[in-house]
Specification:
This protein has 703 residues and is of the alpha/beta class. 67% of the residues lie in helices and 10% in strands.
């Protein structure tokens, strides 16, 4: 093969990596916006993405073996198709949801799994197909071209794409503008490939023109694709933390964050309950901390004439939109703090009379951080002796489902370790009032004594919150329910079970089906492929562990989380390069790297148990880089042991992707929620011990 053509194919592989990572991150954000997603939904997306990619890789081998010979011309056309699909896919995700599901309805686990699989499949299959296909084209003229080189070349593009999205595109452009910009390199590379085959080939101009037309159409049609029946759209912005949209319906404004209505200008009941339930217990509250807010809350706060109100909102774009459209009011003494609230409290010396938490359900690890033992301990340290902490979770009408009973019991048992008196008040939301002073149930009388007027509480409190109803809720609590601990998030497991209970389904069929398929797959693969499977599993599992641990100890600091993802990609390249250099040492190197991975995970367990919150940020990044370095090292070594022909390469790529898919799903959905971060890490160690044993046994037989 001419050197120019080889260089052109290499550029195609790099550009494909850039495009694929940006597309993956954009698709995750789209599904979060469409399904009010959490880590469980993200796990399903990544699982489907990786599984579909693995299937596409296997199809590439079957195609060139059977009926579709690998040629540079076909690779060029596949690249043009790959550049077009992200725009079409994002439009489909936005447009098809209301055709498959009732608008505004909650969607269960299995429909979410099916919808994400169907909409991801076209791009994922083609992406998985193109990478090995590029290698097959290179080997037409250069049969000994190393498969590990394609792996490394693709990783260069992946790292570039991760950095491009995390540090530039997400701040400056909308999703379809990001698709357009990130696919320009792929169009240029495909065009160069055609020119390198035959000078002035018309396909280069035809393909580029068609692809540009589709990408530009996506950019111009983006505003229309976001139109909904939620009301008149009056504001839309893609912040670094998510999609912000404000809709107007008659005189009411509602702010949606990633498709979820989180702030409304007309929710008097919620505003009065959130503010007056806790502040009615204080004689003269002067310093108040409120974590997130919505319409009417600050006006109710103003009735107490406090000297200082610290309002903490993570996303500055959200607080700006709330003030801009009058969803919250700027009142005297108000200080806006755009920071993660838990990180703020950890570093602050301020002492408050009341801390009011106004956050959504703890359905994500990020929100769950404000309902754990460590947060309650930090909050207690920032309250006066008579201070009060208030937070709420979803309420119930007449029947308290068991998962929800366990959820509120877990919260009660956790917060009771830090406050002498904890009272639960039922309603549309269940409010927790936590203080070292006794709590007065007659809240309307307390407010009347202070001369504070209300509409909902003064008129409806006695009818809705009878002593019998309050006592009934508090008597339903389970005293032995496990506590919600940072390293073992009980609420995440319960929220997962509650998701299934809501739709009268069970995760057992899904888990059983996956287990059967996984066993069949593992029985059929070679030892070296199992090593790559376990490595892919551990790489993604470790990445999720690091992100979760980082959220616990440092809060949602976007730059660092983006950096973690990029670091996990960056380590694969030098690892694969070293593995290619030392591949002749074969089984010995796989045994050594498996042993080092086990040791690293052991150190991670010790760090989590004995000082994770005191470790510097660089230690988490270094851990991720070394993990990915070792994992990247194993790929060329395993290829060398298996021979490295086309069939071996496709099976190796597939084993790595399928392992990564199962690592993502099991770590996010099963290991961390059910076992906690320490035992989840121990599970990854167990898998790697199995891999180590398999390779060590074979090594002994070959002696």
């Amino acid at each position: 093969m001419k050197r120019k053509s080889e260089r052109a194919i290499t550029l195609v592989v790099i550009a494909t990596g850039v495009s694929s990572i940006v597309t993956q991150l954009l698709i995750i954000r789209e599904f979060l916006a469409q399904f009010q997603g959490n880590e469980f939904v993200i796990a399903l997306i990544l699982f489907n993405w990786l599984i579909i990619g693995g299937i596409g890789t296997l199809l590439a081998h079957l195609a060139i073996k059977g009926f579709w010979r690998a040629t540079a011309n076909r690779l060029g056309w596949l690249s043009f198709c790959l550049a077009c699909l992200p725009a079409l896919q994002i439009m489909a995700i936005r447009g098809l949801r209301d055709y498959f599901f009732i608008h505004g309805s909650s969607v269960g686990f299995y429909p979410t799994l099916a919808y994400t699989f169907i909409t991801i499949a076209p791009y994922g299959l083609l992406l998985g197909f193109v990478l090995p296909y590029s290698l097959f084209v290179l080997r037409l003229e250069k049969p000994d071209y190393p498969g590990a080189f394609i792996y490394m070349t693709d990783n260069i593009g992946d790292v570039a794409g991760g950095a491009l999205f995390s540090f530039i595109l997400v701040y400056l452009v909308t999703p379809l503008q990001a698709v357009f910009l990130s696919n320009l390199p792929l169009l240029a590379a495909a065009c160069f490939l055609f020119i390198s085959i035959r000078r002035h080939h018309p396909a280069a101009f035809i393909g580029t023109g068609l692809a540009l037309t589709i990408l530009l159409a996506g950019v111009f049609m983006e505003p229309a694709s976001l139109a909904t029946s939620k009301g008149e759209p009056i504001y839309y912005h893609e912040s670094r933390y998510g999609r912000i949209a404000v809709y107007k319906d008659k005189e009411q404004f509602t702010l949606f964050m990633d498709g979820t209505p989180v702030f409304s200008s007309q929710n008097l009941t919620m505003a009065e309950e959130t503010i007056h339930y806790p502040l009615s217990q204080l004689d003269n509250p002067q310093k108040i901390l409120i974590i997130s807010a919505q319409g009417g809350m600050l006006e109710e706060l103003q009735k107490y004439l406090p000297a200082r109100i610290d309002y903490v909102e993570l996303d500055p774009e959200v607080s700006s939109a709330l003030f801009r459209f009058g969803l919250i009011k700027d009142i005297p003494g108000l200080h806006v703090i755009n920071q993660d609230a838990r990180a703020y409290l950890t570093k602050s010396d301020e002492i408050y009379d009341a801390i009011i938490v106004n956050l959504p359900e703890p359905e994500t690890f990020q929100i769950n951080r404000f309902f754990t033992d460590r947060f309650f301990a930090v909050a207690k340290q920032h309250l006066t002796g008579s201070g009060i902490l208030s937070f709420s979770v979803q309420g119930f009408d007449s029947y308290l489902a068991e998962p929800q009973r366990q959820k509120i019991s877990s919260l009660y048992n956790t917060v009771s370790d830090y406050f002498k008196h904890v009272l639960l008040l039922p309603g549309e939301r269940i409010f927790f009032l936590c203080s070292d002073n006794p709590i007065n149930l007659d809240i309307p009388a307390c407010l009347a004594e202070k001369g504070i007027s209300t509409s909902y509480i003064s008129g409806f409190y006695y009818g809705n919150l009878t002593n019998e109803r309050i006592a009934g809720l508090n008597n339903l609590l389970d005293p032995v329910a496990p506590k919600n601990i940072d390293e073992s998030p009980q609420l995440m497991r319960l929220m997962f079970l509650q998701w299934f209970a809501k739709f009268s389904t069970s995760p057992n069929r899904f888990i059983a089906g996956l287990t059967v398929l996984l066993i069949i797959y593992l029985v059929r693969i070679a030892r070296e492929e199992f090593v790559l499977f376990s490595t892919g599993f551990m790489t993604m599992g470790s990445e999720i562990l690091v992100i979760f641990a980082f959220q616990i100890f440092f809060g949602y600091i976007y730059f660092q989380i983006g950096l973690i993802i990029t670091v996990f990609l960056a380590g694969l390249l030098p690892g694969a390069w070293f593995g290619e250099k030392l591949r002749s040492r074969g089984k010995q190197m796989l045994i050594i790297t498996d042993s080092l991975l086990i040791i690293l995970l052991g150190f991670f367990i010790l760090a989590m148990k004995y000082g994770g919150d005191r470790l510097p940020v660089i230690s988490f990044l270094l851990f991720g880089f070394v993990i990915s370095l070792m994992c990247g090292f194993q790929f060329p070594v395993a290829l060398r042991l298996r021979g490295g022909d086309n069939r071996v390469v496709t099976r190796a790529f597939s084993a790595d992707l399928i392992g990564a898919a199962f690592g993502t799903l099991f770590t996010s959905v099963a290991l961390i929620p059910y076992l906690g971060i320490v035992w989840a890490t121990a599970g990854l160690i167990g898998l790697k011990l199995t891999s180590l044993t398999i390779m060590a046994t074979r090594h002994e037989k070959n002696k």
